[in-house]
Amino acid sequence: MVDTSLLVWIVLAPxxxxxxxxxxxxxxxxxxxxxxxxxxxxxxxxxLIAFLITLCLFxxxxxxxxxxxxxxxxxxxxxxxxxxxAFLGDHxxxxxxxxxxxxxxxxxxxxxxxxxxxxxxGKFFAYFNLFLASMLIxxxxxxxxxxxxxxxxxxxxxxxxxxFYYSEEENVLAGNKAFIANRVGDxxxxxxxxxxxxxxxxxxxSFGSLETNISNASTSLLALSGFxxxxxxxxxxxxxxxxxxxPDAMAGPTPISxxxxxxxxxxxxxxxxxxxxxxxxxxxxxxxxIAYIGAFSALFAAIIATRxxxxxxxxxxxxxxxxGYMFIAVGLGFYSSGLFHVLTxxxxxxxxxxxxxxxxxxxxxxxxxxxxAQHRVQLPIIGITFLxxxxxxxGIPPFSGFFSKDAILAAAFQEGQYGIWAIGMFTAFLTAxxxxxxxxxxxxxxxxxxxxxxxxxxxxTLPLLILAVGAVGAGFLxxxxxxxxxxxxxxxxxxTNSTQVHMSHTTEYILMVVxxxxxxxxxxxxxxxxxxxxxYAPEDEKGLIANKFYIDxxxxxxxxxxxxxxxxxxxxxxxxxxxxxxxxxxxNQFIALGKKVATIQNANVRFYAxxxxxxxxxxxxxxxxxxxx
Amino acid sequence: xISLTSYAFVSxxxxxxxxxxxxxxxxxxxxxMSIELMLNGVNLFLITFARYHFNMDPQIITIMVISxxxxxxxxxxxxxxxxxxxxxxxxxxxxxxxxxGEK
Lengths: 629, 103
Fold this sequence. Notes:
The structure holds 2 protein chains of 2 kinds. Among the domains of chain A are: 283-539, no CATH class; 547-598; 602-629. Chain A is 72% helix and 3% strand. Chain A contains 24 helices and 2 strands. Chain A has helices at 7-30, 36-62, 91-115, 121-140, 144-162, 169-199, 207-213, 219-236, 245-248, 254-263, 267-275, 277-280, 284-305, 311-331, 335-362, 369-374, 380-394, 400-414, 418-444, 458-473, 488-492, 505-530, 551-600, 605-626; strands at residues 68-78, 81-89. A two-stranded antiparallel ribbon of chain A has the order 1-2. In chain A, α2 (36-62) packs antiparallel against α3 and α11 runs parallel beside α14 (311-331). The relative contact order of chain A is 0.07. Chain B is an all-alpha fold. Chain B has one domain (4-89): Orthogonal Bundle (Helix Hairpins), CATH 1.10.287.3510. In chain B, α1 (4-24) runs antiparallel to α2 (28-53) and α2 runs antiparallel to α3. Chain A binds chain B through residues 598-599, 601-606, 609-610, 613, and chain B through 19, 22-26, 31, 92-93, 95-101.
């Protein structure tokens, strides 16, 4: 039996790392340089500690312990509102934090190699650890308010890290965009929590008591609350319509992209919906709505990805697309399938980003795939792992992406949501197409010269190899019954009351074959079009798709410009003319009156005496009348 | 016998002349004399009441007023001399140095 008080150390370890690294960094810039090894050790050991503790708790859970709960102190206690600073380690939270810490740890190791010789090395690791700590607060929170702390924490860290190279305006703007788009979502999230609190009539605010009391609330309020919470998820997990920050977030260094996309921020929305499974299982219309948003996000992002030229933006859109799949699953109530896809996606997407980062470094920060292909270098480990990642995300068995994506598509089919199923299938085709387009251009398409050797650091290649194992094998964790598996992830996440895929094996086999065929056809199309592509004649950047449907421009025109107009109207007209006019004219009259009064005080003795006379006369007259003399 | 009212009238007239003197005249000596006049008006009133009610208390107050007025005269005259030395004038309207205003 493991001590429950270990739970808090999962969060505290990276938080401590952030504080230590921050302190050392201040020492570094103010006093004398601190060697990078110090930051590296602190930065990578603390996530490792968090991972090992999580592993301990996980192993203890395997021995029959169901839930860890640790209450640290009462944070807020007003009337019926009771918020404790408490952490909850149930199956869902431990499942999530296991791979968050593990993949996060690998990304930290990778970052040593990637960020080496960077001026802000220490700062980077301080932010990085803080990012992980925030995510773990989010995952291990025992009530929605604590969850919100982590939720805001990852938002803050993403802002800090995306704008890490703050000397360039573009990066800062990208950071701002991420922060503001998330803020819109967070606003919905706060309203969702408040609505939930009022819907339940002010019960003790923890997930446990919310779950037991959920039946007391009216369905309409719950639906509103569920919708508002999902608005928060739209922001964090980059779904339509709040996705615009995600591609721009590629301005940050690549390890950040890997961390945001694989293990932290963007998965928060999926996790949150799963965390509120008791809420969403009661409001199926909202669930269907979520599934549709997810489906359209998946399709939309995949379409845009087919014409992008920036390697990281392709990956960013693919993340958005894969998140769409996850929302299809959680929206339809298949929480364990959704989280299973989060798990497999964490492995292969982290690997893809790291591989992309390795290539970007080797090619001196070139990100356009056509130009990258022109200066191709032989990076054997990156090449192989990249191929594994591309295959995994395309959904080719037996790589992990196939099982998780197939579980989601089967779920949509089983629920009778054939529209979503069709969209998902088409997206799978597009996914295979654009991922292999990228792969063929980068590694296969003919070019005139190929450099053969470029140094890559061990800290870059080692995490790639570990993740490659995960990307290949993680799928077997939740092998469907039709293939002789035991649904291990589904069983583990039974606490979420997830709907299970129950269909005849024949149907399941047919669905699998169809999805494999569709993915394969995507690869074939990509092969025909791009395997012999002349990288010296890249595609033009015109057209609706290459310009991302002009959504940024539309948002700019509709929201940004109008907001600016309204603010300047409020500033120039309402504030300066009306409010200032009213208040200042009142003030001015008082000042004028005061000046008039001041003239009475002229220090003239006789004048004062005269006033005394008048005053005394008045008093006497008053007394004379009132006393009736 | 002269009635109480007559005495009261005389003291009121004295007091009023004093007040008008303080307010209307600019010469600081005249103001000082007007103040004395007001004090004497009050003294007369007090003594009248003392006689009328056969009570000596107001007379004691009157003697105190007279003695304090004597002390005050000493201070007042020295202050006047100082003021005159600094401003070369006895016009009270120019003694406004304690004002907060523009002068």
